[in-house]
Amino acid sequence: MKKNQLMLSVITSLLVACTASAKQPAKVEFLSSANALAAGLPFSEAVRVDDTLYLSGQVGTRPGTRELAPGGMKEEARQVMTNIKTTLEAHGYSLRDLVKCTVMLADMSKWGDFNEIYKSYFDGRYPARSAMGVNGLALGAQVEVECIAVANAGKG
């Protein structure tokens, strides 16, 4: 009898441990701050899944408008990176929390111009990155960047 009680106790403990460690469903939030993107667009500025923030692609529009920053590729790139920084900060993240960026360029010959601006937003600790040439971007933009950030990644 004691052997059966011990076995039942072990099984019960295992069941309780398994139930307690069962992963909770991911917490998903669809976010918009209106600090960077114009209102009325058919997508979220960012989506937070637990501690990970997925940013929609940003082009170099002036905050709250659909007007590209004047001055060419470098000024659009600067505005893109400023918009990303603004979006991150609006949701409690920073550039140091970025872990991945995808860069889309309308003209790959401008890759060096983009990199010059991009590097100035980091302190030598860069997120993983992909860059590709594309055949057209929204609003006739020269560059679009989408990113993924993880809360407190910059603290490590």
Structure explained in plain terms:
- By secondary structure, this protein is of the alpha+beta class.
- The protein has one domain: 2-Layer Sandwich (60s Ribosomal Protein L30, Chain: A), CATH 3.30.1330.40.
- The protein contains 3 helices and 7 strands.
- It has helices at residues 2-21, 73-90, 111-119, and strands spanning 28-31, 46-49, 52-55, 58-59, 98-105, 128-133, 143-150.
- Strands 1, 2, 3, 4, 5, 6 and 7 form a 7-stranded mixed β-sheet that branches.
- Strand 5 (98-105), helix 3 (111-119) and strand 6 (128-133) form a beta-alpha-beta unit.
- It is globular, with a radius of gyration of 22 Å.
- The termini are far apart.
- The mean pLDDT is 87.
